[in-house]
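The protein record filed here.
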Amino acid sequence: MRNLVIALMFPLISFSQSEQYFFLQTEVDARNAIFGGTVNEQGYNGVLKAGFSAQWFRADMFYEFFRDLNYETAGINLTHLFRYDHALKPGAGIQISVINKPKKLTPSLGFNGMLEYHFGRFFLSGRGEVKMRTDWDITVYSRFLGVGVKL
């Protein structure tokens, strides 16, 4: 999967464009932290991301972990950015991932809608996610809040 992400990002790296940057980001599932989720009580559900953004296109690799449910997932997000040259950037995209439960790997597909506010090298983000959880045969809706830094 890492090679796929590198192959997708390589052509973008070779072009000189404005609004082109690598980034690191962390997110927390706000609903899970405050109220609990679809299948759990309150708990910390975190996401770590690293990616590349070039004008209207963004690709990132992520790792999500939720210790209370013994849940981990890793994958890629491919996102279209609208108004990429503004401080407030909305986007929509797809997520392809693998869920790692004890002794079981299952594929998963998700859809994301996001809104970011950029100020200098930093940005704040809000993201809604609809994920088809093939490990439990359900659809889960999540809301994440995050902070990131451009490298």
